[in-house]
Design goal:
It is built from 17 helices and 7 strands. The longest helix has 22 residues. Among the domains are: about 80 residues, Potassium Channel Kv1.1, Chain A, CATH 3.30.710; about 100 residues, no CATH class. The strands form 2 sheets. Strands 1-2-4-3-5 form a 5-stranded mixed sheet. A two-stranded antiparallel sheet has the order 6-7. The protein is of the alpha/beta class. The N terminus is likely disordered.
Length: about 325
């Protein structure tokens, strides 16, 4: 295999001007062109990795060598094709980019999906699921687990768009939920990205996000802050019918931060892990009963998360994800 040629030298042929991109192998036997950039690589290696390419190349009918290198024009972006081909042909490139370069990794999975390169697709999806999981336990641990590609846990809008493009619906509920954690004006004006810029949701996802946000908050408050949950006759306190605690619970409700959580316009932290303390005057039994209701509410919100956004239930999404990760 020859050395990779220099990058972005301009060449002219009878069919127009093009840039020489990397990888470019002088002894390569196929040229792929994306936009105005060409890449010279090896047909056999492409066919071995991708059934789409394998089905596109003509089969040799004998030992003869073609007199010229065939050019295949692809309807993809040049930068995506560059990262995809380097992942296939440059040793260590994929592993390095997976850890350090979000955009390159997304280019690789985008074309791996298009051209059915299973290893890259499955590996990247498995890493995306760490940051956008399908279980509450994994969501609670996500801040403590290193997720690849880097910065992916802060790029919910991009992951949401990508999940729809590559048809991995199991990523969508957690990505939408993370978008919902922003104030409403941020959701409408653009969500901040790690590079300092902002990214807008599509009009469809913006509507889904805002409606889902309201459904989640309503469900949280109905299960935790309804009258039946704040007095000792409620189902959350059957094990601790301590009537003297009722007035203390109601005083606690009137605290500013609690009132915001129970009735505020822009509050949205239904999956926060720390149970509120009811305040002085509430016995341990009533506090424990409230904590149990709080944790049941968190689990309820998560298990119903896809439905708040108009998606199938988790069991269906998890089956789809398992199929993607086990494709042969």
């Amino acid at each position: 295999m020859s050395a990779i040629g220099s990058n972005h030298s301009t060449r002219s042929t009878t069919d127009g001007v093009y840039e020489r991109g990397e990888p470019w192998f002088d002894d390569g036997n196929v040229i792929l062109q994306a936009e105005s950039t060409r890449f010279r690589v090896y047909r056999g290696a492409l066919a071995l990795n991708s059934p789409v390419f394998a089905g596109s190349f003509p089969r040799n009918r004998g030992p003869q060598v073609p007199s010229s290198t065939a050019v295949y024009r692809l309807q993809v972006q040049a930068i995506d094709l560059q990262h995809f081909l380097k992942a296939i042909f440059v040793p260590g490139y994929y592993q390095r980019k997976l850890k350090t370069d979000y955009d390159a990794t997304i280019s690789i999975i985008r074309l791996s999906t298009k051209y059915q390169v299973e290893y890259f697709r499955q590996d990247i999806v498995a890493n995306l699921v760490i940051a956008y999981p399908s279980t509450l336990a994994a969501w609670d641990k996500r801040s403590k687990v290193e997720a690849y590609p880097s910065t992916v846990a802060q790029r919910a809008v991009d992951v949401l768009r990508l999940a729809r493009e590559i048809n991995v619906r199991a990523l969508i509920p957690a990505a939408l939920y993370q978008c919902c954690e922003n104030p409403l004006e941020v959701i409408l004006d653009g969500i901040h990205q790690p590079d300092g810029g902002t990214t807008r949701l599509s009009p469809e996802d913006e509507e889904i996000c805002i409606l889902g946000r309201e459904r989640i908050v309503e469900a949280f408050r109905a299960r935790l802050f309804s009258e039946s949950q704040l007095v000792s006759s409620g189902p959350g306190f059957l094990a601790s019918r301590h009537v003297p605690c009722d007035s203390a619970r109601l005083r606690w409700l009137y605290k500013d931060e609690v009132w915001e959580m129970a009735f505020g316009y822009d509050w949205f932290k239904p999956l926060h892990t720390e149970c509120p303390i009811l305040g002085p005057g509430v016995c341990p039994s009533c506090q424990n009963a409230f904590a149990a209701t709080f944790h049941r509410t968190r689990s309820f919100i998560w298990e119903n998360l896809p439905g708040y956004f108009g998606l199938p239930e988790w069991s269906i999404l998890r089956i789809e994800l398992d199929h993607i990760l086990k494709e042969k």
